[in-house]
Amino acid sequence: MNNTATTRDYYERMYTEQGFGAQRRYPNEELCRFMGRNFFPIPNAKRAGVRILEVGCGSGANLWMIAREGFDTHGVDLSEESIALARQMLAQYGCKATLRVANMLELDDAPGSYDAVVDVFSSYCLNATEGHRFLQTVHEILKPGGLFFSYFPSKSSDAYTNHKPATLVDEDTLSGIYRQDSPFSGNHYPFRFLHPNEYEQMLVQSGFEVKYSETVSRTYGSGKKRAESIMNPVLHLVLDTAEVFSFITIEARKL
Ligand SMILES: C[S@@+](CC[C@H](N)C(=O)[O-])C[C@H]1O[C@@H](n2cnc3c(N)ncnc32)[C@H](O)[C@@H]1O
Q1: In 78-166, which ranges are E strands?
Q2: Does position 240 have pLDDT exceeding 60, yes or no?
Q3: How far is the CA of 59 from the centre of ligand 1 (A)?
Q4: Pocket of ligand 1, candidates 125, 133, 141: which has the most ligand atoms within 8 Å of its Cβ, to mutate?
Q5: Distance in angstroms (rounded) separating the CA atoms of residues 248 and 153
Q6: CATH 3.30.565.10 is the classification of domain 3-254
């Protein structure tokens, strides 16, 4: 099975078994901030002329916010079931978007189609070679001066630095998240990580100017160990095996 088929099978199964429970229902906070910085100042009357595409849109948690704000909203995902769920979610919020099943590596949009392309924890499913190709595709389908937003796993995450029994399929990509106490354990398909400077360099090489780059981290830990460490603060450092997962949040403009 090739990379894409493994990822598609995984997500098709998740969306079929768990429906809306497979993903968040509300938009990613970093995406909201990106939209706030760049698009919310646009007057309502002009927003329908601003085209925004989400790649790997899943069940539509980000799309409904973009659509509700009045932008011309588009979404693609590999999984048929995710697109069916996204249609339902948009309808629930009374919003409209153009949705289709497609591989983000094989988009047939005309060059210069979009004002922004957003990737919320989706292009990490591509391996290193595919990741480079993807940025070239994004560059091509953006209008001159168009913006790319990405929320992407950082190599400083414990899931990458302590990844066994997963193996590296290339210098950036794990065979999946196999360690059982890791967040995202069970995601058995290519899972890519980058350092912020590597991502910035890739974007510059692909013809972008980086406008914003920040890392946000979450700490995951066992509730039992947390409770024990509150009762016995001296043992806190020994007992709390909390795991850190970090995301690069990056914004770049097509030159
Ligand atoms: C972790 S989910 C994130 C979904 C959504 N962006 C969100 O924030 O709720 C990753 C999504 O990327 C999609 N995906 C993975 N590889 C893809 C590809 N090559 N082309 C299109 N979608 C892809 C998956 O089907 C899945 O829906």
Answers
A1: 98-101, 114-120, 142-153
A2: no
A3: 9
A4: 125
A5: 6
A6: no
Contact (Cβ atoms closer than 8 angstroms) between residue 156 and residue 198: no
| Site of tokens 């060059």 | 111
Cis upstream peptide for 165 (omega within 30°) = yes
Instruction: Kindly report the protein residue whose alpha carbon is nearest to atom 4 of ligand 1.
Output: 58
Distance CA 93, CA 147 (A): 26
Which ligand 1 atom minimizes the distance to the CA of 11? Answer: 25
Rounded to the nearest whole angstrom, what is the distance from the C-alpha of residue 240 to the centroid of ligand 1? 32
| Domain locations along the chain | 3-254
CA atoms lying within 13 Å on the CB side of residue 84: 8
The residues facing 243 across adjacent strands are 220
Tens of pLDDT, residue by residue over 200-212, are 999 999 999 999 9
Q: Which of 2, 4, 11 to mutate to test the pocket of ligand 1 (most atoms within 8 A of CB)?
A: 11
Residues in contact with ligand 1 (CB, 6 Å cut-off): 4, 7, 11, 23-24, 28, 55-58, 61-62, 76-79, 82, 103-105, 120-122, 125
Measured distance CA(192)–CA(176) in Å, rounded: 9
For 35-57, how does the pLDDT look when each residue is reduced to its tens digit (9 = 90+)? 999 999 999 999 999 999 999 99
Q: Are 117 and 53 in contact (CB under 8 A)?
A: yes
